[in-house]
Amino acid sequence: MAGSPHDDHYSVKLQWQHTIACQLSSLLDDCISPDLICDSMALPKQSKYGQYALPLDRIHSHLKQEPWCSMTATETAQWIVAKLTPSDTIEKATQLSTFVNITIPRATYMKAVLNQVIQTKTKYGFGTSAISKDEKKILSCALPQLPDLLDANHFRGLVLATFLQRAYRLEGCDVRLVNTMTVWNDNFGYLALAFEKYGNSDGKDDLSSLNQIYLRIKQEAVEDESIHDQARQYLLQLEQGQEAMIKVYHSLEAIFTKEYSQLLEHRLPFSFDTTPNTQQPWQALADLYRHMDQSSQVIQTPEGEWKIDLNGRVLLLRDRHGISTQLTRDLLHHATTTYHIAGQHHTCHLETVRQTLTALNLTDNIFRHILFGKVKHHKEDLVACLDGLQRTIVEIIEENEGTEKYDAMMAQLGQLSETTRTKMTSDPQNISNDELMHSHADRLGVCIMLIDPLTLRRNKPMAFSSHPDVFGNSGVFLQFIHSRLCGIERQCDVTLDTTVVDHDEAFEVFDTVAQFPYVMHQALDTMEPSLLVTYLFKLARTTNQALYRLRIKGAPPHLANPRWTLFWAAKQTLANGLAVLGLEAVSRM
């Protein structure tokens, strides 16, 4: 368990869990430590079974004393239920197969949850993980050199990487996200040659112009073999740190970084903490070569090649021209990496990198590969998908044009644009309704695109739809529930009141809100954002159902205020969950 159960940041649910674990440990004559019992406890699959579940299968092997060592897990569960007495934290216990299900006193529990959400607000749910806050975490993922080639597999990896980036940061960790794909690769020589020979003849420093002259050089290389030799020479000069090639390198990196910035920062909520042009390959490579030259693991052939033997596999580190291979470049990229996010199809190569890092004794901290399943997709690019979603949502908004709801939404968006620089416009002043509508539609479209790849566990293959469903279990539904709660807050004169709402639907919402810190802990511990997304849909559905039974508008203050406090806690929790995913909760739809 993370920290002390008495820490102020520790969630109510985890505090109660630890207290219950202590009571169970005492009942079992301290045969099992409270921490082990606490870590073994889980959430029941259905709320009717209580708020906590202890699967005896997880701990039964630790029971070495009588009478439990002679019992089955089911019999031990029955024994615990018979012997466990109610307390301030346990109302009753029931047995189901090998599970001990525990129900806790509602009133005390609900009041404690509400007070914690009110006190912590935007920090609710964060800071409860057992992850060390002292170690710097370096996350990395590789994007294609050209943003136009950013496909659904890259996108899924990027969504996962940025979830971990934000989640670690919210937990208080020092974290950096790095894009390991730079201009330093086998194509650099051809790009440099094209840049030198043709330059930006049309006066444009963009990828389309660069791609044209690159293809032109590659076509010429088919007829002229000397171009290949010159391209290799330029790559070698870069790795040797020659000033002319360094200048070309920085020019090319600036173009690629600018193009990615326009896509990632202006439209998608992604940002790298270390940009590609901060990498200095010629400096790092010189240090690596000095280390390799002194290593007994590196084989230097008479032809000038440098190789390494990994369990019978002889791998090339430097070719006869003195140029590094992709394996060598990856050694530099991953020497300081904590986690590298990449698809399952990269597993073999990344394992080779790990083994080589170990064999050469380059780092004590070998990175971990965070893999995800392959994405089946068509040729449509992500920008086209975003544009399509924007058009669909704009059409839905336009259907309500002329209504009071439409006018109120546009007025609210106009007020926001005066204080917030929108991602779709460079000038926040004098923005037309059409621009506001398209900006709002784009935010909702981005929400759909981010939520969609996170609904499945990351190791599962998935099909990327170029036209994901706007309705049903989509990001729009989460935003709708949040905006609906904001609407209630605007329309009703309500204040926060922690008086307990004694109603089954109210307790369902309270219990779901209380699970948020636990879900965040599990999602980060397993690196499974799908756990968080599944939880957010559950919270939204539970809240939506409760809104029909627990009316606020027209209710007397002694009912309206406690009910609103319940829904305010749900609204804050939903906004916090969306923030981890990189999404800003909207207040109108």
UniProtKB/TrEMBL annotation:
Residues 478-589 form the DALR anticodon binding domain. InterPro entries: Arg-tRNA-ligase, Arg-tRNA-synth_N_sf, ArgRS_core, DALR_anticod-bd, Rossmann-like_a/b/a_fold, tRNAsynth_Ia_anticodon-bd. Pfam families: DALR_1 (PF05746), tRNA-synt_1d (PF00750). The keyword S-adenosyl-L-methionine does not apply. GO terms for cellular component: mitochondrion. It comes from the Eukaryota. It catalyses: tRNA(Arg) + L-arginine + ATP = L-arginyl-tRNA(Arg) + AMP + diphosphate. Keywords: Aminoacyl-tRNA synthetase, ATP-binding, Ligase, Nucleotide-binding, Protein biosynthesis. One of its GO terms (biological process) is arginyl-tRNA aminoacylation. GO terms for molecular function: arginine-tRNA ligase activity; ATP binding. Gene3D superfamilies: Arginyl tRNA synthetase N-terminal domain, HUPs, Isoleucyl-tRNA Synthetase, Domain 1. Its EC number is 6.1.1.19. It is an enzyme of class 6 (ligase). The keyword Transmembrane helix does not apply. Belongs to the class-I aminoacyl-tRNA synthetase family. This is arginine--tRNA ligase.
